[in-house]
Amino acid sequence: MSGFLIYDAKVAVLVVVFYMFYRLLLSKETFHRVNRVVLLLTAVASFVLPLCVITIHKTVMLETVPMVSVGDFQMEVAPVERPSVWQAVLPTLYIIGVLAMVGHTLLSVSKVMLLIRRSERYPQADGTTLCVVKEDVTPFSFWSYIVMNRSDYEEHDAAILAHERGHIRQHHSCDVLLVDLLTALQWFNSTLSRD
After folding, report:
1. pTM higher than 0.70, yes or no?
2. Which of 37, 22, 26 shows the shortest CA–CA distance to 192?
């Protein structure tokens, strides 16, 4: 497990570096598709790059291992390494954090699905479904559903519908779930976000 924690620390460093470059170079740009692609690719690259191994050959002198002799029998004596408390605590804390984040995501998705299930649904010609809810919610989309409150629905605001349909066409729900999964694996690193 300590190998995985080292890998995860490398991922955390790459996430911070990529995000820093994004904030400096692209965050003010209005090319939303480019920003989306850059953010998704750098998030995935942060998890892939630490798996790449670069081998450099170097001659190393090995120390001799002490030998113990008993009569005609010889055996090597290797130092005994005792696991530290942190080798047990850190993996446990990490797993608890991942499970908490995944649980939070599952809870959020189930709340959205419950909201959609309780809504008045109006199928649209483009394959989307307009869901009108009693709750005061900001309009959002989830898969092929556009969720809005009654007052937004009665205003027939074409800009809101066009905006949410754009999210559906670009499969924004997949992006959100991917980022939520990556965030769960990097829960201790708060810079991984859904810009």
Report:
1. no
2. 22
